[in-house]
Amino acid sequence: MFLELIIDPVCSIAFESEKEEKDIMIRKPRNLNDTFFGRNKIAESVLQGLLLLAFVLAVFLFTINEGHSEFETRAISFSALIVGNIFLILSNLSKTRSVFSTLKENNKSLILIVAIAILMLLLTLNISYLQTLFSFQNPGLFHFLISIFGASIMLLVLEIIKHYKNKHLKSYSL
Q: Residues 66-91, buried b or exposed e (16+ Cβ, 10 A)?
């Protein structure tokens, strides 16, 4: 439930307040016979979900091998899931522009919502009542760097896929 409280508002507000793609009015319209959730869209979503799963599992296994307690492993893995989802959202803000170019735009709603999500995560990891409620134990800030590092790799992979997909589409439209 906590995950939904973070991800749903981030997605809703971030995507609703994002500017439209610059070439949106010169693109060919979508074929009316195409379904909204076609095979390509579903495959892309499944691929992103599997990439996030692989990332969280890698963080989970890494923390176990590092000798963390069950409660620390749970906290670090949960953090990886939250950070990974935030990075997925950032990557999906635009189908054609990189995450870096979308972040240059002044989307105050996105910044606010991501800040609130991170604040909620930090409160959950540092307030003893919430730690008990979630069965978390904070192993220290340094141990969460693996979550940020792994999520950054996942984001890089998604951005590379986006770049090659857009390059491929442009070569066909010329």
A: eebeebbbbbbbbbbbbbbbbbbbbb
Residue 38 forms part of a structural domain = no
Tokens at 76, concatenated: 């670090």
Give dist(CA 141, CA 34) in Å, integer. 47
Is there a domain that residue 27 lies in? no
| Domain membership of residue 94 as a residue range | 2-17+51-173
Alpha-carbon distances of 39 from 35, 160, 163, 172, rounded to whole Å: 9, 21, 20, 20
Distance of alpha carbon 24 from alpha carbon 34, whole angstroms: 18
φ, ψ for residue 79, nearest 5 deg: -60, -40
How far is it, in rounded angstroms, from Cα 151 to Cα 156?
9
35: tokens are: 């379904």
Q: Which amino acid is at 28?
A: K
User: What pLDDT, on a 0 to 100 scale, did the predictor assign at position 70?
Assistant: 94
pLDDT at position 128 is 92
